[in-house]
Prior knowledge:
The chain is mainly beta. Helix content is 0%, strand content 48%.
Amino acid sequence: QMQLAESGGGLVQAGGSLRLACVVSGTIFNIGNMGWYRQTPGKQRELVAPTHSSDSPGRFTIFRDSAKQTAYLQMNNLRSEDTGVYYCNTVPEPRNFWGQGTQVTVSS
Length: 108
């Protein structure tokens, strides 16, 4: 059974960077179909990458290592509004199960 494990979150100052990792296990999976979502209190979970949003293009970039079945999210120039729990899942539609997520907190 497919499992998702996110890691790499933490506390960072505004303007800083973080790299998150998502390891897919339990099945052979095309890591190219993986994206990143963010959950913040009071809001629905939203897709943050890949996205065609014009809001600060390039701040979030996905890297993938197919051999390791791992997807990374490089986040640069972080803002306080980027705070939340980050999850990986398939795109364009997520599957009906999620990993534990990884908390990102950006201090201003």
